[in-house]
Every structure is written in C-alpha cells, then in structure tokens.
Amino acid sequence: MNKIVMICPERNSVSKWVQYFKEENSNLTVEVYPNDTQREKTEFVVAWNPPEDAFEKFPNLKVIASMAAGVKHITSKKIPKGVKVTRVKDDYLNYDLSYYVLNAILNYLRDMPLYFQQQQKNNWKRLTYKRPEDVTVGILGFGNIGQAIGKLLVKNDFKVLGWSRSKKKVEGIETFKEDELNTFLAKSEVLVCMLPHTPETEDILNEELFLQLPKGAYLINVGRGAQLQEEDFLKALANGQLSGATLDVFKTEPLPEGHLFWKHKNIVITPHTASITNPKTIVPKMVENFKRMQNNEPLKDEVNLEKGY
After folding, report:
1. Strands 159-163, 84-86: parallel, antiparallel or unpaired by DSSP?
2. Which of 67, 77, 141, 247 has a CA between 20 and 30 Å from the CA of residue 125?
3. CA-to-CA distance for 69 and 309, rounded, in angstroms?
4. Options 11, 87, 197, 224, the catalytic residue
5. What Cα–Cα distance (Å) separates residue 195 from each residue in 124, 181, 182, 204?
6. Integer Cα distance of 301 and 288 in angstroms
7. Which of the residues 110, 165, 259, 272 is marked catalytic?
C-alpha cells in the first residue's frame, strides 16, 4: 500500500510536509496521526516527538523516519522489534549549522555580546580581540556535520581539532579518537559540542570535562541539551574556567522563563535554531527510502539502534 503516516504532534507546518510528499509522488496517500486509518496496512511512518505508545499501534510497521537529524525523540520510545529507523542527513542542514557555529565564534572573538550590553548603557569602550588564526577550536563529535563545521572553520583560518569515537582523516584538521579525549580537550580554546544524544553523552559537559579545557575556554553547544550539566556549567562560568557560552539546545525546551541562563551576561541563547529541517529537501529522500522499503533494499541514513545514532 502506498501510504505514509505522519506522527508529529508538535509540528505546526504538517500541511507543508504533506504537500511536498504529494508533489514528490502523487500516488502516495499521506495521513496525519491520530486521524489516520487502516493502521494494519501502515508500514512507513514519519515522526517527530511521537506519543509514548504511538508505534505500538501499527502492527506491521517496518520503518520510522525521523523528521530531524536527532533520533532520541524516537529511540527513547518503545520501538517494535525489527523496525528500522532513519535520520535526516542534508547538506543544507550542514551548511546552516556550520555558519551558525562560525558566527557564534566570531561574535565571541570580537566581544559582540559585551558591545550589545555596553550599547544599552551608552558606554563607548573599545576592547581588544583575537584573530581566527590565534584560536584553536575543538569539535566534540566529528561525524558528518562536525566535519562540515571543521572544513568551514579551516577556510576561515581557524586551527581546528576533531574528536570522535573512531579516528577520522580530514585535510587540515588534527583528529583524535575515543581514548585521546584528554589531549583533545587540553588544546580546545573553543569547544563545539556536536555529539549525538545517547546514554553515554548525557551530562558529558560537566565539571570534570570543563577542568580539562584551557582556563577561560568558550563553549558552543549545538548538540543536545541533555549533554550539559547545568550546575557544573554555571560553576565553571563563575570561577572563570569557562569565559562564556553560546547555547542553542537545552534540557527543557522552550527554556523556562525563570531559568538562570536568560539573564547571565556571559551566555548567548538561541531557541534551537542553529539549523531547521527543510521539508522540500528532506521529503525526496524519505520517498526514496519508502521505495527502498517496498523493494527490500537497504535504506539510506539508517540509524544503528545499538549506538543510538
């Protein structure tokens, strides 16, 4: 049956996704949960933050396609045995996220947040600044997106390091593997977290890790909010181990109104907007995977459920 069900209670623009699915394949039937029909015939669902028991309602489910690069919102739920999960891999996401990180680092080097604060006080005060070639940026999580970030930073004269579980080879970038984390951190004056969300990475940005960074290091978290141990982070800012941070992801989203991060002078906050999935570029890949499922062919961008990414 040529049918896809979308399970995305928090998405406000589901109609655009449905439109692009129909444009990509006019023979597809696209229904939106919970108003879908004939669940026993549904084999392929597209999901974002689905209800806890949603997948169990589809007895013949074969594939769950994440609407984003992250999959924790899926893997944290009960997935029926034998069901495959795919994630979003898109050059546009890589591009957008890379330029977000570049912008965050340049704002830090030129003290733009402090200038914004001075402006509110009519304070004309010049500050010294660092140049890209004088700064070493460490990318914690050097997969597909991390490498895209690293390549852009190298083009802009930064010294770049990359850390991942297995050794990677990227021209112009010094890379480190799992057992070389301490060496990697000791050299990272700016730390960019691009790790996936797994049980091993929860609260990985903690006091122990911060103390291995150079004194006054700067943190950029575009990975997952669950990776930041918030009390340790605030302590590191207070004692100067960290000089500041740009945060795009948080343990609770939206960030609660009374949260301490909002008014901290050394924290720049953006509302999970470093990169936003564009259905126009993602839907064709999902439709291709739908055809691959029908033909019993290997799926593209399949998630290793044991690793969680």
Report:
1. unpaired
2. 247
3. 9
4. 224
5. 39, 13, 16, 10
6. 11
7. 272
**For the residues 26-38, what does the mean pLDDT come to?**
96
User: What tens digit of pLDDT does each residue of 251-276 get?
Assistant: 999 999 999 999 999 999 999 999 99
Backbone angles phi, psi at 176, to 5 degrees: -135, 150
Which 8-state DSSP code applies to residue 289?
Answer: H
pLDDT digits (tens, 9 = 90+) for 74-87: 999 999 999 999 99
Radius of gyration (Cα) for the chain, nearest Å?
21
Task: Determine the length of the chain.
Answer: 309
Q: What is the pLDDT of residues 173-202, one digit of tens each?
A: 999 999 999 999 999 999 999 999 999 999
Instruction: Output the DSSP codes for 128-141.
Output: ----GGG-EEEEES
Bridge partners, residue 205, by sequence: 228
For residue 260, what are its two tokens? Answer: 């301490």
Q: Is 39 known to be catalytic? A: no
